[in-house]
Amino acid sequence: MHKKTDLIGRKFGRLTVIARYESNEKYVYMWTCRCSCKDMNVVNVRQSNLLNGKTKSCSCIQKETAKKLKRNTVYITRDRIVRGWL
């Protein structure tokens, strides 16, 4: 468990900490972060996930990676080989 420290203004991946978020759990420290993606989403993240690198974005990185993988897929049909979207 990490100590409670002031993270406001620090960047973690695409997330910038903007405020402390009140958590109902006793030893869970949460922070409100703004993502630097095109949607500028605001998410609440556990302090431990920020510090150990588990959370780096509002999930936009995961969506971009999935989109790239789908676009680079080769589909084999009976008659021909098709690249990209079907």
Poorly predicted sequence stretches spanning 5 or more consecutive residues = none
Q: Helical content, roughly?
A: 10-25%
Sheet of most strands: 4 strands, antiparallel
Structural class: alpha+beta
% residues in beta strands: 25-35%
DSSP E strands, number: 6
Number of helices: 2
Average pLDDT score: 83
Order of helices and strands: EEEEHHEE
The N- and C-terminal alpha carbons lie at a distance of: 47 Å
Radius of gyration: 19 Å
Envelope shape: elongated
Report what the structure shows.
The chain is built from two helices and six strands. The chain is an alpha+beta fold. The strands form two sheets. A four-stranded antiparallel beta sheet has the order 1-2-3-4. A hairpin with a 6-residue loop joins β3 (30-35) and β4 (42-46). The radius of gyration is 19 Å and the shape is elongated. 14% of the residues are buried.
